[in-house]
Amino acid sequence: MSHIEVGKMESLCLQEMTKLNTLPLDILLIIISYFDTARSFAGVASTCRSLAQVVKADGWRIFVKTQFGSLSIPPNTTTCWNDLARSLTWQSRAWDKRAFVFDTFAPKPTGPLIPAGGQHRRRAQMHSHGSQTVPCQIVVDAHTQFNGAQQRETVVWGAGENLVTRTRLKKKNEIISDKWFTSEGSTAGFASGRDDVTSISVFRPSQTQVQGENIGVLVGRASGDLRLVSLTSSGFGQTLQNFRPSQSENVKNHVRQTEIQSFDTGDRQKLLATSTKDNVLLYPLDSTSMIPEEKESMELEKMRNIEPIEAVDLRRAEGSAPFKFLRSLKFMGNGDLAIGLTSSAQPLRIMKITPTGTEVDTAAKMRPSKRAAATYALKDWENSTARGLLPIDSTAIPGGGGNVLLSSYEDGTVRLQDIRTPSAIDTIYGDHFEPTTPISTLVSYGAERFIGGSARSSVIKIFDFRWTKGYTYTASLPCGNDNPFPAPKLPTLVSAPTYDNRRKCNHVSGQKCTWHALSTVDYYRPNANIYLRVMRTNHRTQPCYISSLAKPSDISTTLYAGLAGELVEMNLTGNVGMDEPMPGSNHHGMPYKQSRGPGNIIETGDGLALDDISYSSRMPVMRSQVPIAALLLKRIPTTSRKRHRLDESYQQFEDHFIDAVSTCRHSVTE
After folding, report:
1. CA–CA dist 208, 582 (Å, integer)
2. Which SUPFAM superfamilies does this chain map to (predicted)?
């Protein structure tokens, strides 16, 4: 072959090579949709101006949608896709590495206590939840309003008969200001114990509203009182609307509204559904007239009384199996109402709301599968209790739809099921360390993870849904032929998975290195229990369990937990420093005392319910957040600390050297 012919071939090859920035936009967007790390997008953006513009205009949006597609993204955050991508990636890393800080809030003493009989002593007792000898259970809810990079977070909770709220202004997760408000229940005629808050929900009149304080809170009490209360600065605690049947309505429908157990609002039907121990009542909602403007705050006392449009005595419903009392209810995505019952052979009922009335049916039985252990299938002759209910938007999961519900039961299981018909999505979850301990309340983050609060102790339980995961922070770390470390010591005897000894990933053949392949295996991504430190008080005579959980949004960095007399705020963070200043710590006018403390964790396994609880046969390792450990860890190379499965606050010095020779841990390819 002549030199001329060779030159022609080389010229031909060069001409056929297409540069990335010359591709049609639709083809380019398809290519970058396969990028699985933010670093890949940033690398493409740094090559030339045209690609930088593509990444800015469409790339970050595609990254968020493909890697975090199951999360609910508020519409008013979409103007800053690059900031959102940055926030979600570090949040995902913080969840996976268990990088949390915990702040506990308890009421401050309100004055000196004097010996028996003095007025000051009685007043102090009233501010400490009246004459109750046992602390009240904190019931909490939270909501965030977005305006681009700025966020207004509102957290409100019931403490006995009182209401407390904190409004926090944040920008890019940095706190700008805090405002606290307290409404003493006694000033509105509420009594401790009898009128304790039992259910609470921040009312969102417009999900697209981004400015101002134009929101309220629905408050249900043990006495049956249910009302919408203002959360505005000038009218906080004032009643906007009352929801209660008239006396004639009580007689006609044989129902009474006593002791609010639970309530929920349905956006599709514009309804408020509430349950007592025996009945379900449906009220109309008109969000356009329920929250007045700030200028109308002087007329808040002119409240309206709203009567139910439907009242159902569930005990009298046709074919209804006996039950002790109603525990909870939630609107499903398709408009149906899921109802959880105590001590019933049919603990989960579905109420279909039609133009002609309501129809009550039993939820579909689960079909045993690899994800749903046959041992836990509900039997018609066995009574059970459905505790927490949580509808799941499962459109991002194959086989998912608008009928999918997550529910927790008295036997300790949590069940994900299509309530209309058995489907492939049906899964039974369980804590492998405390397999029979029930979970009282549930919160989920898309289809990525859900959080449960223990009904027996101050434990927050983190579960992975175990569906195909989008983003993993380990994908952006260097390759290696070592195993992820440290190997978890789980309650069950499970063998560690193996993989080929491969030092580098081969993206052409699709083969991963040892470390990247094993980092995504469930064994190295176990669920975890977090054991919270609670403030000790003179009333601490009973177990302190989690009575409520609340998240401001799917993309929030904060989770709230209500306990006996205390509120715990759990924040995602980078590497934890226990000596870091607390946000808004004990400033003037703050009605609650704030204290930061460590959270101990135990890793509990993949979370799929065990066929036999005897498989949970050993005590796992409990790790504590120890500030002094940070001093020792500074002697460890940064690369090793980053590759550790857990946050530095949980790392132990010996983690970095156990089996170091056999795993070649420090021979990582940079």
Report:
1. 31
2. F-box domain, NHL repeat
**Domains annotated on the chain, with CATH:** 3-94 (1.20.1280), 98-106+137-469+527-603 (2.130.10.10), 473-519+626-663 (no CATH)
pLDDT of residue 130: 47
Rounded to whole angstroms, the Cα distance separating 197 from 161 reads: 6
Average pLDDT, integer, range 79-88: 89
Q: What is the C-alpha to C-alpha distance for residues 209 and 212, in angstroms, rounded to an integer?
A: 8
Residue 349 forms beta bridges with which residues? 339, 362
In eight-state DSSP terms, residue 655 is G
Q: Would you state the structure tokens that stand for residue 357, as one six-digit string?
A: 């009335």
**pLDDT per position as a tens digit, 389-434:** 999 987 767 666 668 999 999 999 999 998 888 887 889 999 999 9
Say if residue 81's pLDDT is above 70.
Answer: yes
d(CA 616, CA 426): 23
Over the range 121-144, which residues count as b (16 or more CB within 10 Å of their CB) and which as e? Answer: eeebebbbbbebeebbbbbbbbbb
In this predicted structure, what is the pLDDT of residue 116? 46
Distance of alpha carbon 276 from alpha carbon 282, whole angstroms: 12
Pairing of strands 162-171, 174-183: antiparallel
**Residues 430 and 415: beta-carbon distance below 8 Å:** no
Residue 430 tokens read as 């369980």
pLDDT-derived band at 527 (thresholds 50, 70, 90) equals very high
Let me know: does 279 contact 311? Beta carbons within 8 Å: yes
Distance, CA of 45 to CA of 47 (rounded, Å): 6
pLDDT digits (tens, 9 = 90+) for 97-150: 999 999 999 987 665 544 544 444 444 444 444 445 567 899 999 999 888 778
**C-alpha to C-alpha distance for 196 and 185, rounded to whole angstroms:** 9
Tell which residue, 438, 280, 412, 286, has the closest CA to residue 357: 280
